Amino acid sequence: MAEQLSVPVRRHVFIDVYRSAVILLMLEGHTLRTFLSRDLQQTSFFQIHEFIHGLSAPAFLFGAGLTFVISTRQRWEAFHHWGDPLARRMKRIVMIILLGLAIHLPFFSIRKIILDGTTSDYLQLFQCDVLYCIGIGLLILHGLVFFFKTESRFYGLVVSAVVTVCFLTPLIWSVDFLSYLPPMVAQLCNGMHGSPFPLFPYVGFLFAGVVVSWEFLLAVREQRERRFMIQLTIIGCVLVLAGILFDVLPVKIYPVYNYWFTSPNYFLVRIGTLLTILPLFWFLGKGFKKSKPLLTVLGRESLFVYVLHLVVLYGSAVNPNENLQVIFGPELSIQQIFLIFFIFVAAMFCAAMLWNYLKEKYFNFYRLVQLAGSSMFLYYFFTRDF
Known about the structure:
Number of domains: 1
Order of helices and strands: HHHHHHHHHHHHHHHHH
Shape: globular
Mean pLDDT: 92
Helix content: over 70%
Strand content: under 5%
Number of helices: 17
Low-confidence stretches: none
Radius of gyration: 21 Å
Distance between the termini: 55 Å
Number of strands: 0
């Protein structure tokens, strides 16, 4: 399977459409969960919603894996040694990790974090969220490319990693790593101390996206994309059924078993669902002769939208009280929630369009905005006393 890839570089529209849909699902889920009353959150309707919304983070990670091979394959040799391509890639990955940390800052002051930070504060700071998981996962992938070099070894190791993460997760979650490791490392391993998306099992979705992307590019080279997507749908359905059937078997393998957080069976169900959904976007994308900004801009600017929506909706150390969660509070009606949702999505869409426009048309100004914003953030972060 791990054959040499030699497919010309081109942007696959269906991946941008897929990622845009994932962002919309994430925005809807976060909005409803934030403002819906606690009584309504106990209803069966909300539980069904939670299962669907629970796919957004795995789908986001899966999408990051899809783009990794596409963005890496033509510079494969360049990533075997330190040089400009690898340096630029590492810079971007480090930025993703730092953004993940910045979102969870307990205080907007490095002095206060160092002098007054408690264990709870450091657990909050280093909790493994989607960005942190993606950043560490990409570092692992580039480590495999750098040290093992051949594509067959890389492919085999990534497949092995997916299987390993799937079946080791229940065991990893049974260990309190904070007793042996600093919070920075312990929070990566499991969710025992509040990490919402630790490496086990969530980095497995990133690696699974890499495998699927690799096989897709081979199908593109051999002009059998349609057959590949049909096969992917069949495999996805098989995995979903397997995850359901294995769970009802009266066999106990793990000493501690939690279906919704650590179960390999639930991992199979979610991976299978993603494999079933992705071909739908491919068939949809076949109807587009070129990228449609209205359908793809959220996907192309997914990192920007992800960070922005969290800061606006939940706040951060920079704006702990100036955010929608504090302004509106919980216990809103369904009508009010959906009104907020539509306005929120419209605002995120406009912000993504503007950000993408600056990037495409006024790149120097786009970089200037990035530099000014990050410089202002760092200045206050390192100079404030509280």
